[in-house]
Write the structure tokens for this entry.
Amino acid sequence: MASGMASALRAAVINATAPTGATAGAAGTQSLGFSTSAAMKVRLNSTASTATAAGTELTGTGYTAGGQAFTESQTAISSPTNSISLPKTTALSWTNGSGSAWSIQSLDIVDSAAVRAWWGDFTGAPVSVANGNTFQVAASGITITLT
């Protein structure tokens, strides 16, 4: 399964934590650029996301453009060898009312300003969701880790 960190985030992490600052040898001053004032969201896509580009966002009745917000925070990890599983305890779900089947290939995790952090294809993608049916991401159904 293809998945990972968005390229812009990888560059920002390197620049913020390496000696790229204005003062010789100092750590970079680049912000990671994420909004921390509102919940991050899961966007569903009909095409594959990549490290450099988001997939084509799903449309239709039952899906809110921009994605569905996480309703709770996960416990921060203490080591980069650990992982975070999302959502924490409450599943995310969307009920297709568009009149035709949805084809879901991938997801993007974005901040409230739609700045993309993580992406990945769903196992078994594309997943077909018939009109009237519900697509659900179970609690701990998404795992984020650095490898």
User: Anything to note?
Assistant: The chain has a mean pLDDT of 86. Residues 26 and 37 are 28 Å apart (CA to CA).
